[in-house]
Amino acid sequence: MANKLTFDAIVVGGGPAGTSAAITMARAGLQTILIERGRFAGAKNFFGGVLYTHALDAVLPDWQSRGPALERPVTDTGYWLLSPDSVLRFTQKSERFKKVPAESYTALRANFDPWFAQQAVDLGVLVITKTTVTGFLRDEKGRVIGVTTDRPDGDVYAPVVIIAEGVNNLLTQQLGLAKSDLPPRFVALSVKEYLGLPEKEVEARFGLSGPDEGVAIDVFGDATLGLPGTGFIYTDRAGISIGCGLLLEQLVINNLKPYEILARFKNHPIIKPYLEGAERLEYGAHLIPETGYDRMPTLYTDGVMVAGDAAGMVDALHREGTNLAMIAGKIAGETAVEAHKQRNFSAEFLKEYRRRLQDSFVLKDLKQYRRMTDFLDSTPHFMETYVNFANEAAYRYFTAHGMAKRDMEKEIIRLLTRRRSFLGVAVDMIKLLRGMRG
Amino acid sequence: MREKKRTTLNPALAATLPPTNVDDLLVSVKYYVDEEYAHIRIKDDKVCADCPHRPCLDFCPAGVFTQDRTGKILVGYQACLECGSCRIGCPYQNVDWNLPRGGYGVAYKFG
User: Fold this and answer.
1) How confident is the model at residue B2 (pLDDT cuts 50, 70, 90)?
2) Is A225 helix (H, G, I), strand (E, B) or coil?
3) A-chain residues near B18 (CB < 8 A)
4) Residues lower than pLDDT 70 in chain A
5) Are the beta carbons of A113 and A42 closer than 8 angstroms?
């Protein structure tokens, strides 16, 4: 073989975790290669979500001056409880959200991820696209010392590899760090449409005063036929992202087509007027690993660290993921820099990565919500029961029927107990509380 | 996972789902099709023949799995959105799913 292609560090995957790791290492002077299987970083990435500026600040403090590809700041956010004919809204709109930069922004990943990867390139990272990593190179003791790719003569060597391969963590499984494949009970399949609509029209429909305002809404209940999952609506600069995600096992056992659930959601009498005349510019699908703290893969081994979706770093309750990925990528990158200083790439040393994640919100939050997906999985009736009840109760509350209010209150209680016994309600609430308190 | 659980959905609610042709959605998706390598493959046709509910025909968001007149499952990998659901959702782990070769497959324009 000719010259071995050797770097200080290899990153697999050009999403938020991988690019954050690469930026962190390049800034510390490590010769870093980032290998991405798509035609460009972000080509395979698809989300219904937002990006958080606290994570951008941590990874790339001067990000604002680098012309980030973001859509709208989130200034109006919360939950809609959707029944078949009504909606109850729990949202907050606040002047406090209107600062520059905002806490979070909506984004389109085929725009944001390439921008983010370009910042890595500008800082000296070699980004190689259209290249799929297929396996690992090992030394005589079996320690990872590089990766194999599907390019001719595509072996790449480095003493440390950061795996940020995404939810389909085949490499993480290949190393035995993930003990099994993802269980369909704890993975959501999300489908989304990006609909084009003139900027002024987006603003008129969602009550936004200009491009410096935007909404991010989770929709519970009828959006997912009352099954465990959520619908979501985000405003983009000149468009709307609308989608829904359900636990994959629910689609399997009910023989459901995810795009029919989305079509039904879009057709809901409350939702439809927001979308009227909007043109579908793209449809797509992605898995979300809601596997939780207890089923996370091992995060490191000799010469390897795992970050982002590949490691199940998603807080489903707060729909956070990109920020966990970016912070984990940064910490993995910092650990690799330390490892180079000490010339020690052993699992024993890289354990530091996990220890530092434990001190950050990443593992603290994942630990706190460790029971959240189990809660959804074990109470499949939850969304339908309570969302529909809340809408019925609100309807009674907000209308006058010439009925004594005391009788109205009794009727509201009856609406609940018709759906679920007092004991059932108590059990559901305890489970919800445990899901939220950990 | 054998299919231990079955449907939890009220049939009246299921009847409200609008029949949707997935091809109408997929025209909005950009692909670079690899004509030489199919990254999805059925491991054993006999397992599909004995599968009672065939959930892959429904849960795949790209409608990659269809059946011919004889009931054999066909794989239209060209339409794959690379979500990976079939790899983990098949109750018999009968789908061999790999990443497409570098540069091929879906390339989102917006994401």
Assistant:
1) very low
2) coil
3) 260, 263-264, 267
4) 1-2
5) yes
Query: Domain A184-288's class?
Result: alpha beta
Contact B85 A255 (CB under 8 A): no
First and final C-alpha spacing in chain B: 31
From CA A140, how far away is CA A53, in angstroms rounded? 44
CA–CA–CA angle A421, A424, A428 (5° rounding): 140
Tens-digit pLDDT profile for residues A6-20: 999 999 999 999 999
- Does the distance separating the beta carbons of A181 and B103 come in below 8 Å? no
C-alpha B18/C-alpha A158 separation (Å) is 52
For chain A, what are the domain ranges?
Answer: 9-70+107-179+292-368, 184-288, 373-437
A224, amino acid identity: T
Range of the domain at B81: 40-106
Give the DSSP letter of residue A172.
Answer: H
Domain CATH for B72: 3.30.70.20
Nearest CA of chain A to the CA of B47: how many Å?
A: 17
The interface predicted TM-score (ipTM) is 0.96
* Residue partners of A17: CB distance under 8 A and separation at least 6: A164, A307, A308, A309, A310, A313, A325, A326, A328, A329, A332
Does domain A9-70+107-179+292-368 fall under CATH 2.40.240.20? My reply is: no
Mutation pick from B99, B101, B104, B106 vs chain A, by most beta carbons of A within 10 Å, is: B99
Note the pLDDT of residue A243: 98
Query: Which tens digits make up the pLDDT trace of B41-91?
Result: 999 999 999 999 999 999 999 999 999 999 999 999 999 999 999 999 999
| Cα A328 from chain centroid (whole Å) | 14
Q: What is the pLDDT of residues A207-221, one digit of tens each?
A: 999 999 999 999 999
